[in-house]
Design a protein that fits this description.
The complex is a heterohexamer, with three copies of chain A and three copies of chain B.
Chain A lengths: L1 E5 L4 H10 L5 E9 L5 E5 L2 E5 L2 E8 L3 H15 L8 E5 L3 E4 L11
Chain B lengths: L3 H26 L7 H28 L2 E2 L3 E2 L23 H19 L9 H24 L4 H5 L7 H19 L15 H20 L7 H29 L4 H15 L8 H25 L7 H19 L17 H33 L5 H6 L1 H6 L7
Antiparallel strand pairs in B: 1-2
Helix pairs in contact in B: 1-2, 1-3, 1-7, 2-3, 2-4, 3-4, 3-6, 4-6, 4-12, 6-11, 6-12, 7-8, 7-9, 8-9, 8-10, 9-10, 9-11, 10-11, 11-12
The chains are: A alpha+beta, B mainly alpha.
Bound molecules: adenosine-5'-diphosphate (ADP) (3 copies).
One adenosine-5'-diphosphate sits at the interface of chains A and F.
Chain lengths: ~110, ~400, ~400, ~400, ~110, ~110
């Protein structure tokens, strides 16, 4: 299971890159992240404060092992702007994957 | 004689002022955290009901009814007895008396709703209902009588308040300060960020308030003609110059102009011109608006220094604005534009300035102290503030059993 | 003779009533689930277009045109022929005839939009368009003629309906009931929670409706003077007492007062006072509002018992409110305030009560049955309800190809 | 002589037109991406302040002040000198001069705000402020003088523009086109979806605009009587037929009718009828509305073909609508309804059509070129467009230091 | 840890099914997913485009190993409509689980 | 990878605690959870029903193994109020972690 946290502005590009390497499904979540990237100051009626959590998109993709590297590479290349805040890719092991509609398991279920 | 044009204007103005309270609901509602949006809307919305009923039962009579020693109206007009469809020449000779009554009702409604900004996000709703009822009866109605009632002592002394700088804004502003001090800070205030949950809602609210304010100020002419036109123009002039001033100062001071600031500035300008709208010219109004923007900007930015949590700045905008505007009447007023007014200091009549100062000072002190006492009493009887757990969870689910959004 | 003040008032009132339909869009739009917000807005928004066109083409003529046997207007005024800039003394002697026409247009617009609350979240849009067109022509226009048209048989019998308790609220409310029964429950209704997706939107809608209602009721005086003032005051009085009543009952019954309840109460009060606004005094209006709050509260709480899914309570609020208010005219009306009205039961004139009862009963039955037939016909021709799949996905993406929010 | 009814109507209309700018803020604000909602609201909100101040200082005098060679007003009325509470018979004989001034101020305010739709989501705020100031002074004020000012050369030639089809919509629409071309596409435009972030907000905005438009068009009669009634009715007629037309065309063309389309159609109809509102009959208005819907629908659907990114379709709606409507005056106008107007082509007076064509063409070209020059100059001095990084992050956090929602 | 991505319309049914097999807690997130299911066309003022990401609910449930199969089965059965877009179930290994309130670890913490 | 589900009211405190133990990045998501904590009753125009899912914040933090315990402890201590509903901490194994901007992998990427 690949989890990537990327910038909103790269989302469309990443989506296309993923489809090109044959990804057939993914799930996305609106998140707010914080890291090296500095936040920004917000001003509300005299109160000024630091916002450190910036909006990001989390993409989760279940892939078969043989596609893993290609997918990671696709994300890396398409999400990169070279500026701080480009985000992270995390890979975790998935025990099982089931397609609810058919009950298929494993690779067919992806 | 009833004049159709005047009646049309006054009824329309009454509708506009009525709309201001839902407008205020939005203005305030957008500023709080999501978990308190309904509780905040409820403050304004329920005030319409509570105060209107009080007004028709006793409030109108206390404020405008036959005078008792300059202090209060008697109960001859309670339950709207003797308030009918013929004009009351003492107040508004060209419209039905009931039209004047309902127009004034809308003022009585919005005033306590303004205060609710001070204790937003932490007041018990039961305490709020009691507070609004008592405050209307013991603060708003008497002060309205003093300043506007035939026989009222401040009116008699020559205090000028065209549309409620004293009666509406100074009373609510100073009561807000008392409330903020008495009820204490929101949990986490000044320590963690509490950004407005929905600024577009606040901006809509400001737009609606601005729109309604034309009824508030220009309607206070109680007729459709030169005076209403003057008040309309000065209202807009002060609103725009305060908005521009706020944007400019914030840009210079913070490096960025905010729309929340612009909206706040507009309300500051509107509140400040209120007492002066029918007594000064458009050029003075532009200056008054500039002052309004600067003063209220300063007040809001100093709040953290003083450390009281006037959550939505009811004091910083309405208190400061109402006082500033009332004093400005004493500076800028001119008989040339309104013979029922006076000349101010800048036309050589320093006396009017002192009268204004005295008038607003008395009402400010009275409102502040009376509110403190009221809050103390309610606190002892019913408790004022929700529990910490409820404050954490938010008023919406805990007090009202609803959630604002299922988006 | 055209009177400027009256014309100003009537045009302004027409604008206010026009604004009510977008207000209704918000009121209803906030109540549905997120996936249906645009479909719900579309019901109201498109009704403005559909009905206004129908009105200018034939509707106005059917409703107010030269009488045919007390039942309907003829087509002499179709396409606004003979409807010009001179007053029509039979309806409104001091304003241009076209002003009266456009004012009435706004009433015709909002009435079918009210019904849409009953079948929200599951009606085909094509069916809706046909329904609105036919319903306006076959229900609204005739009933408006019966009650308000010169020569209309109910008017002739003495039925009083100041601003549409029968013509607007009873017709829409009973048709809503028919529609809810005919179209059936939303999938999952009464089984899973369907909380409003955006209550602040509903509260804004209520505020705008209230504001507009001053045009609806006080505008129905068709002039700016004593009668409009009376209607204005009674409108507000009933709204506030209904709001307060609702808050109170809910607090006692459920332990918590909701802002959704307060908003609902206000609309209930406004709907209920509508037929009575120009015939009763402010004190009666306070009582009528209390009744309105209590009756509609009960109706909404009993709905699950009966098990029909009037999704946004068009029947529970407008049907119950319209009937209650129409009967209240028969109880509280007084010639002392409006010589064109009547005395009600409480002034010894039981006859008026029976007239009111008869009038509203006839219209209720007619509206209910006619709507049933219409819905049946449309269902056979075009299908009434969207497929289950579309209902699951929501009207917005399936029927309209849009989404409400990308937040 | 000041007439109370007329004054009530004009002040109320001024308030309505003022409300249109916050309405526009919502209309536009809902269409942009979430990250730019406040920046977009700020465009409209700040325009109220900037332009109103400019107007009182010099703008009103330039537009309506004593004529200089048909081109511009002189500065005799700058700072509102000589603009007082007595009527100015040349413009509005029955209301205070200041009432006419403030009514016209609201027109000056909304016009540049309309343009902001063209460069939404990518313009520097500093550049915007300068642009609005210069544009008002160099485009709006002169054109208003040409068309509406006593002595204005287009007025002298007989160009008719009842409420601003040329002065408001053609100027803003063509300037919007210039701006969209000059500033260039939003990053990603036409490549990635940029759906509106909050369509209900856009629909509310449309409702408020519609409501305010009654003040815009019917208020332009400057009195409450037959002419205001005519303008009111034609305004509504065109709005509804444009809405219906849009729904219908979209349904046929795309298979689904959208509420965004319906709202857009209504604004198209309103913009298009503006110049004609007091010169044509309701039947013509229905036809004009149909034309409006069809023309603007086509314009918006052709935009991707031409490839300029008029983000919120300020040109497509106001430019096309304003031109279409101005030409329609030349087709449909009738002296029978307004003796101060003219007969159009369909009543045999082809000349009026050519006059209209000439008038709108001159203003269109002038607005387009003047705006191009202005934008170029501002670009050179201060820079017009935010950096790519800021565009990515959104104007709200980068330029204004705020976020729209914490939901 | 079981992660299920399901349709909104099945959520209520799935929740009941889970409670019946003894699930005591879960966490849900609004997500947008994309897979075999075709999206829909949206129309905005003349622009028409394909929306591929459909709203789904993600449910995360930490369960002990002995309940794993029962829970998966419950989800499969309750979430299935048989139509495309029914969603997926992913199973991942959880190293540790802690209840913050008590500091309990492991199975007691669920 | 540490996943913590906590109360909104503790979020600010947890954030500070995490920064003190040297956490340099994290990702947060708005979720709704359900567990031992009772929900509340909502009332809508006569309909009353139980809301069981309460708003919570999910925090995801990728940490190196040596910091794992410190981070968990920091969360436990800062998120705890002692009342039901304080939430959970889940730990899962992460196979790989990549910083998109630089392509760094493993610990440097955190
Ligand atoms: N240790 C971490 N655990 C979880 N998420 C992280 C972590 N570090 C960064 N992130 C996520 O990645 C996003 C980008 O990280 P940041 O450090 O700002 O930029 P970069 O990856 O370019 O150095 C953050 O906003 C956050 O959502
Ligand atoms: N490979 C994947 N990785 C992550 N999520 C997926 C993946 N495939 C599908 N999904 C999720 O499951 C949902 C349903 O998948 P879809 O292929 O449309 O239907 P089905 O599972 O019935 O074939 C998607 O909307 C998406 O959220
Ligand atoms: N088994 C579980 N799987 C996933 N999330 C859970 C589970 N149990 C609890 N949660 C999450 O933890 C939150 C708090 O759990 P709860 O049982 O209410 O309190 P506590 O942890 O104090 O006993 C829940 O709202 C939910 O989001």
């Amino acid at each position: 299971m690949i989890t990537a946290i990327i910038k909103h502005t790269r989302f469309e590009v990443v989506r296309r890159a993923l489809m090109e390497v044959g990804v057939l499904g993914m799930t996305t979540t609106e998140v707010r992240g914080f890291g090296r990237q500095k936040g920004f100051k917000e001003i509300y009626r005299g109160a000024e404060y630091e916002v450190r959590f910036l909006p990001k998109v989390k993409i989760e993709i279940a892939v078969s092992d043989d596609k893993l590297d290609a997918v990671i590479r696709a994300i890396e290349e398409s999400a990169r702007t070279g500026e701080i805040g480009d985000g992270k890719i995390f890979v975790t092991d998935m025990g099982e994957c089931i397609r609810i509609r058919t009950g298929e398991r494993g690779e067919e279920a992806l | 004689m009833i004049n159709n044009g005047d009646t049309a204007w006054l009824l329309m103005s009454a509708a506009l002022v009525m709309l201001m309270t839902p407008g205020l609901a939005l203005f305030y509602g957008g500023m709080v955290r999501r978990k308190n949006v309904l509780g905040t809307l409820m403050h304004s919305f329920s005030a319409i009901a509570i105060v209107s009923i009080q007004w028709m039962l006793v409030g109108y009579s206390l404020a405008f009814g036959p005078d008792v020693k300059g202090i209060i109206g008697n109960l001859d007009w309670a339950l709207l007895r003797n308030v009918g469809l013929l004009p009351n020449p003492a107040y508004a000779p060209t419209v039905p008396h009931l039209a004047f009554m309902i127009y004034q009702a809308m003022f009585a409604v919005i005033t306590p709703a303004l205060i609710s900004g001070a204790f937003a996000e932490r007041m018990k709703f039961s305490a709020y209902v009691i507070f609004v009822l008592l405050w209307s009866t013991l603060v708003y109605d008497p002060v309205a009588h003093w300043v506007w009632g035939v026989g009222g002592w401040l009116r008699y002394l020559g205090v000028l308040d065209f549309a409620g700088g004293i009666v509406v804004h100074a009373t609510s502003g100073l009561s807000a300060l008392a409330a903020a001090l008495y009820i204490g800070k929101r949990k986490g205030a000044f320590k963690e960020p509490m950004p407005p949950h929905n600024l577009p809602m606040t901006v809509i609210g400001a737009g609606i308030l601005w729109f309604g304010w034309f009824g508030f100020n220009a309607g206070s002419a109680l007729s459709a003609g030169q005076l209403s036109t003057l008040a309309f123009v000065t209202t807009h002039a002060a609103a725009v110059s305060a908005t521009a001033t706020w944007i400019l100062i914030e840009w210079l001071h913070r490096g960025r102009p905010t729309v929340f600031g612009a909206a706040t500035g507009s309300i500051a300008g509107l509140a400040t011109i209120t007492p002066a709208a029918g007594f000064v010219g458009p050029d003075s109004a532009l200056i008054i608006g500039t002052l309004a923007g600067a003063m209220c900007y300063a007040a809001l930015n100093l709040k953290p220094v003083f450390g009281y949590d006037d959550s939505l700045d009811a004091f910083g905008v309405h208190g400061i604005g109402g006082i500033t505007g009332t004093l400005c009447v004493g500076l800028f007023a001119t008989l040339a534009l309104n013979p029922a007014g006076a000349n101010g200091l800048f036309l050589g009549n320093a006396r009017q300035f002192y009268i204004q100062l005295g008038g607003v000072a008395v009402v400010a002190v009275y409102s502040f102290l009376a509110s403190l006492v009221l809050l103390k009493v309610i606190d002892m009887i019913a408790g004022l503030r929700v529990s910490e757990k409820i404050e954490d969870a938010g008023l919406d689910i805990s007090v009202h059993g609803e959630e604002g959004y299922y988006l």
